[in-house]
Amino acid sequence: MKRNDFSHVKRVVVKIGSSLLTKGGKGLDQTAIAGWVAQMAGLRKQDIDVILVSSGSVAEGMCRLGLKTRPKTLHELQASAAVGQMGLVRVVDDNFQQHGLHAAQVLLTHDDLSDRRRYLNARSTLLTLLDFGAVPVINENDTVATEEIRFGDNDTLAALVANLVEAELLIILTDQQGLFTGDPTVYPDATLVSEIRANDPTLDRMAGASRSGLGRGGMYTKVRAARLASRSGTATVIAPGAAEQVISRVMEGKNIGTYFVPDLEPLVARKRWLAGQLQIKGQLVLDPGAVKVLKTNGKSLLAAGVKSVSGRFERGELVSCIDEEGNEIARGLINYGKAEAELIAGKNSADFERILGYADDAEMIHRDNMVLI
Ligand SMILES: Nc1ncnc2c1ncn2[C@@H]1O[C@H](COP(=O)(O)OP(=O)(O)O)[C@@H](O)[C@H]1O
Ligand SMILES: N[C@@H](CCC(=O)OP(=O)(O)O)C(=O)O
């Protein structure tokens, strides 16, 4: 994808860093936030799905609590985040409301995206919010995250969210013009990189740490995020958050910030991931009707077309779909664990509530989570 193809983008993740949001730690920048929200609302009006990953809870909490330096201990960080998150969501929500849009707070930990079942839950909730036309506002769940289940920085979180919802574009707003050949606060003669392949090995030499004491990762985590995002075919632009109409200009394909070109298109990347990297935990035998629908119409797999179930799997794990002769037709992430799948195999989704005691996904495997073999 070239910059001038961004006009085709239908789903974008915007990440805004702490120092931008809090005027370098002085408190939430109401004017700037109103400006970014207005631009995101403009995208929603064009029917583009928008997800905001917003940092700033610790920085705003520090400000409210009168802490001069970023706390060192985990519980102080967590307390600070809890205080600051209140201010953050209030301002963001007020602003989206002024544009007639609903903001939806989603706080995630690393476990939510690494555990297969929780991954599917997080994905379904985010996609449902987008279907409702709401704007998910995501941050790390700092108050409960221990070291082991932390993302640690919101650049990584934003990239994983972009992977999760298959956004075509990730925009990371920061306090610099973009990625420079070296940290411009240390090397004044460093120059702005306008475009680079996300997997270019020279990137590691350019990107340094954060120096503001407010954010977490500096350029290093942003470059790593661009690489991570490129795994699902997502393009990344690191752009100057303080620049006039920055989000709109990036979306218009203007030459602003640094554009990280992914190696693959989103669909190809996801199919490769599904087809190659996960272990198959079970098998579904499909009736001829289901085989035909999957092959010819690219539809989701409904339980009604499943004749039998084998293997050991939980919700969210990879299963293989075979025809009655044993030929593999497709693979996908299943919405039900083995016990439930056996109960609903061959049944209509209208009967799920009676059989299972609850009604959940109508599909056994959603077409977005399936790849034909
Ligand atoms: N190659 C580079 N180009 C630009 N900035 C860099 C580079 N290396 C390190 N940095 C530093 O990264 C900082 C931005 O990261 P950070 O403070 O974590 O911001 P944010 O809060 O937006 O995530 C810049 O202010 C700059 O000091
Ligand atoms: N969850 C933390 C995120 C910290 C963080 O990654 O900050 P930044 O490097 O400014 O994006 C917070 O809201 O303060």
UniProtKB/TrEMBL annotation:
Record-listed substrate binding positions: 55, 142, 154
SUPFAM superfamilies attached to this UniProt entry: Carbamate kinase-like, PUA domain-like
Binding residues annotated for ATP, in chain numbering: 15, 174-175
Location of this chain's protein in the cell: Cytoplasm
One Gene Ontology molecular-function label: glutamate 5-kinase activity
UniProt keyword Kinase present: yes
GO cellular component: cytosol
Pathway annotation: Amino-acid biosynthesis; L-proline biosynthesis; L-glutamate 5-semialdehyde from L-glutamate: step 1/2
EC nos: 2.7.2.11
Group of enzyme by EC: transferase
Family per similarity comment: Belongs to the glutamate 5-kinase family.
Primary role: Catalyzes the transfer of a phosphate group to glutamate to form L-glutamate 5-phosphate.
Name listed for the protein in its UniProt record: Glutamate 5-kinase
Species for this entry: Methylomicrobium album BG8
